[in-house]
Amino acid sequence: MASHHRLRHNDIGDYGSIALLEYLCSDAGRRIELLYLDFNGTGLGDIGLRAVSSYIRGNPTLEVLHLQNNQFTGSQDVIADFTEALNESRVSGLSLAGNPSLSDNLSKALFPNLTTPHLRTLDISLVSLTSDSAPFIINYIQSPRSRHLRELRCNGNRLGPSLRNIVRAIRDQNFSLERLEFFANSGAGVPLANGDDRPSDEEGDDPDLYPLTAMWATLKRCRERNTFLRSTTETEALRLLVVTRCMLFGSHRTREQVRTVTWGDLPAELKLEILSYIAPNLSPSQRIHVTSYAADATTLPPLDRLPTPGKARPSKDATRSSWLHRMESDHFDVTNDTLVRYNH
């Protein structure tokens, strides 16, 4: 069955989408394991968005959801309900671009309540965000709730000079975002100038943010830094997994080794100290997660697994991503004691 469903530019409206989604929520519809659902330009309104929320809530397969260019009114209750459903889904790519009526209500209802660990890409371009949205965006990207988000697109809004505060927050307290787009963000009557438009207070002394060209260069360095940190974290986590598997499942006593101190005899503090030399860029909590995962024999891949007829095996990349996600090592942990080393 088709795993991608594209309805783009078909004006089915709220009631057409409700009829489709009700079928997809039925027993027969659940057999269609959709990975990609596109409602771009279908005339979807608040009623249709509530139906989308019902469909994605608890959905175990849907990964990409496109809701661009529709007719949402920006009701905070509707957005809050959608956010709650998003937190209970496995959606990794979400686009709400081209819905100008969402405005700042989107930020007020979405970002304070967004907790999903699966979201990797968020596109909120052309939704009429102003500087009033900046505190909500900043609070989210500074919090651990955003550690899995890798791509944020926020083009064509009206964030204006508050964009510099967002870039400052990314520079100082976000180590996961790898792709950032903030193009064409002028304020209402307060354009982002390319000259030396720094304010007179102490914030204007930050050479990474003034003038505008310096801010874009800072954003580029943040992207490069965060990409490097995630790659390093994932490499070290997989290396540590191999070592701990060998140590945990290979340390069995024999009669001749009764007095030998094995890995299992060591105190937890000493184990973590030894493991820190194998994976120095992982935080202590991440090393514990990797060790616990390695110690669980049920996580070992079965050697006799046969492919299910009509169902493809997961790719190597998908399997690797699943391991890293379950070991909480698919992101750089900002509580890491090496944080200061990578802060600039």
Number of H- or I-type helical stretches: 11
* CATH architectural type of the largest domain: Alpha-Beta Horseshoe
* H-E order: EHHEHEHEHEHEHEHHHH
What share of the residues does DSSP label as strand, in percent? Answer: 5-15%
CATH fold-type name of the largest domain: Leucine-rich repeat, LRR (right-handed beta-alpha superhelix)
How helical, in percent, are the residues?
Answer: 40-55%
Question: Shape, please?
Answer: flat
Rg on CA atoms, Å:
24 Å
Q: Compute the number of structural domains.
A: 2
Give me the count of strands.
7
CATH class of the largest domain: Alpha Beta
Supply the CATH superfamily name of the largest domain.
Ribonuclease Inhibitor
Helix vs. strand class: alpha/beta
First-last Cα distance:
49 Å
| Whole-number mean pLDDT | 85
Q: Give the biggest sheet.
A: 7 strands, parallel
Main sheet: strand order: 1-2-3-4-5-6-7
How would the blueprint of this fold be written?
Elements: E1 4-6, H1 13-25, H2 27-30, E2 36-38, H3 46-56, E3 64-66, H4 76-87, E4 93-95, H5 103-110, E5 121-123, H6 134-142, E6 151-153, H7 163-173, E7 179-181, H8 212-250, H9 268-278, H10 284-295, H11 316-326
Parallel strand pairs: 1-2, 2-3, 3-4, 4-5, 5-6, 6-7
Helix pairs in contact: 1-3, 3-4, 4-5, 6-7, 7-8, 8-10
